[in-house]
Amino acid sequence: MLAPVERLSEFFVHAGRVSRVARMLESPEEVVQACTLRVLWHLSAQSELKMRLFEDGVLDYLLPLARAQQDRGGYDRDIALDDENDERMMTQTMLNDAALALTAIVQNISESKYGNGETNPNQVKIAHSGILETLLLPRASSKSKALQFLTCLTLANLSMTPLNIPYLTQTGALDLISQFTTQHEMTVDLVCHWLSLQPHIPLLASPHPPIQLFALCCLEAFLKDKQYSLHIWKALAMNDGVGNITKLAQSRDRPDIASLARKLASQLGVALPVVSAPPPAINRFDELFHSGAYSDFELECEGLCVRVHRALCSAASPGMRAMMTWGKDAQSGRAVMQGVDYKTLQAMLQYIYTGDVDLDCETVVSVLAGADMYGMTDLKRKCEVMMWHLVDDDNAVSFYDAGERYQAEQLRELSWQYLLRNFDRISKEGKLSQASKTFLDRVSEAHKLHQTHHHHHHHHH
Predict the structure, then answer these.
(1) CB of 324 within 8 A of CB of 314?
(2) Between helices 86-110 and 58-72, what is the axis angle to 10°?
(3) With contact defined as beta carbons under 8 Å apart, do 53 and 109 qualify?
(4) Which end of the chain is more exposed for a tag (fewer CB within 10 A), N or C?
C-alpha cells in the first residue's frame, strides 16, 4: 500500500530528510541512482517541497551526476534496435531516463511561481549554482527533443527574475530559447503528462519577446489537447493569463507574437479590446532628471549637488516634502540630505523619476534604509522583494536585523522563516556568531517548535 503523496511531502518538509535521499545518488550502482532520481523527481513536483529540495542542497548531489552524464555523453544517443543490442539498450534506456529525470528535477526546482502562488525565492542562486553550465546550456542542444524542451522551460523560468537576465543573456540562454521555438513545432507529447501548467503560463508575463513567444507556443500546444482545458483555465486565472495574452496581442514590435496571441485569444473565447492601446509614452520625467531642466530645488549629498523638482520629489517622499516645504531649506531652495550616501540618493531619485531602480546585493540594504527614512513605501517593497532572492546562510541574520530596523515586515518574516528552516545547518557552519544571545535563543526555541509542530502533524493521520 503506497502512502499518498501528501503524506510523503509532510515527511520530507523536515530539514535534512531530502538530503538523506539525495545522498543515495553517490551510490556507484546505476540502478540505485536511477531509482533515487525517480523518487526525487516525484518529490520535486510538490509545491511545498521545491524550496526544501533546493535548501537541502539537492543541487550539490545533482551537479556531479550531471557532469558524469555529460562526460559519458551516453544519454544523448539514439540506438538502433537489434538483438545483440539488448543489454546496451537496457542501460541506454536507463541513462536516458536518468538524464530526463535529472533535467526534470532541475526544471521543477526552478519554477518561477509555485502552484500555491508563491514566487520562487531561489532563482538567482540556482542560476549561479553551476547548473547552467554543466546541465542546462549543453542540454539545450541535445538530440532528445524532450530534454531540449525541459531545458528551455527551465531557462525561461529562471529568466522571470530580472536579476538573472544579464547572466542569461551573456551565456546565450535567451538565444537558445528563441532557436528552440523557431525550429520545433511544439507538441504536447514532447513531454510527459503535466500535473499543472504553473511552469508555463506565468511565463506569459515576461517582458522579453523570446520568452513570450515560447510561452505562447506552449499554450498553443496545450490547447490542442482536450485533457488540459481545466488546467489551462486554472493556471490562466492564477497568473492573470488573460490580461497577459491581451497585452501580447497588441505587441507592436513583434507581429509574430501579436498574431499568435490573437489566435489563442479567439480559441480561448477571450474578447480582445477593439481599440489597441496607445504606444507606451517614453518616460518624460527621466529626461527632466538628466537635463535638470525646470528644476527648482537642490539636494546636496557628500559634497555633490543634484538638481531636482519639488513637485515630483514631494509627491514620492513625505520626508522630502517636509524638507522642501518648511523652514529655511525650503526658502533657500537647497538642502543637505541626511543619512544617505550619494549612491543611495541616486537610486532613490532614479526611482522617483522613472519608477525603476537598479539594485544589487551591495546597495540594496542602504536603499532600503534610505527609503524607510524618507517614507518611500513602494521603493521599500521593491528592495524587500529583491532581498528575498538574495537571502542566504551568511546574510539571513543581518537581513533580519534590517527588517527590524527599517520596519520591513516582509523582509523580517522571510529571513526568520529561512533561519527556522535551515537552523541546524547555519548554526553548524558557525554563521550565527554575529547574532545576540537572546536572538539565538529565540530562533532555536522557535525552531524546536517548528519541528515538533510538523512532527505531530505527521502522526495524526
Answers:
(1) yes
(2) 140
(3) yes
(4) N
Please state the φ and ψ torsions of residue 400, each to the nearest 5 degrees: -60, -45
- CA 80 – CA 183 distance, rounded (Å): 25
At what angle are helices 377-390 and 364-373 packed, to 10 degrees?
160
Measure the CA angle with vertex 130, ends 128 and 136; round to 5°. 100
Lookup result for grid cell 514620492: 316
Using only C-alpha atoms, the chain has a radius of gyration, in whole angstroms, of 26
Q: Contact at 8 Å (CB) between 151 and 142?
A: yes
- pLDDT tens, the chain, 461 aa long: 445 555 666 777 676 778 788 888 888 888 888 888 888 888 888 877 888 888 888 888 888 888 887 776 544 444 443 444 444 444 556 666 778 888 888 988 888 888 777 788 888 889 988 888 888 888 887 878 888 888 899 999 999 988 899 899 999 998 998 888 888 777 655 555 666 778 888 899 999 999 999 999 988 888 888 777 777 878 888 788 888 888 898 888 898 999 999 898 888 887 776 655 555 555 567 777 777 778 889 999 999 999 999 888 999 999 999 988 888 888 899 999 989 999 999 999 999 988 888 888 788 999 999 999 999 999 998 898 888 888 888 888 889 999 999 988 888 988 988 888 888 888 888 777 777 777 778 888 887 777 765 544 444 44
- Dig out the grid coordinates for 31 from the structure: 540502478
Asked if residues 193 and 158 have their Cβ atoms less than 8 Å apart, the reply is no
CA angle 317/319/323 to nearest 5° reads 115
Question: Which residues are 298's β-sheet partners?
Answer: 307, 334
Q: Under the phi-then-psi rule, with left for phi > 0, alpha for psi from -120 to 50, and beta for the rest, what region is 407?
A: left
Residue with cell 533580519: 400
Task: Give residue 444's identity as a one-letter amino acid code.
Answer: S
Contacts of 445-450 spanning 24+ positions with Cβ under 8 A: 446/416, 446/420, 447/419, 447/420, 447/423, 450/420, 450/421
Specify the amino acid at residue 124: V
pTM, entire model: 0.72
Q: Edge to edge, what strands does the sheet with 297-301 contain?
A: 304-308, 297-301, 334-336
Cβ neighbours for 20, distance < 8 A, ≥ 6 positions apart = none
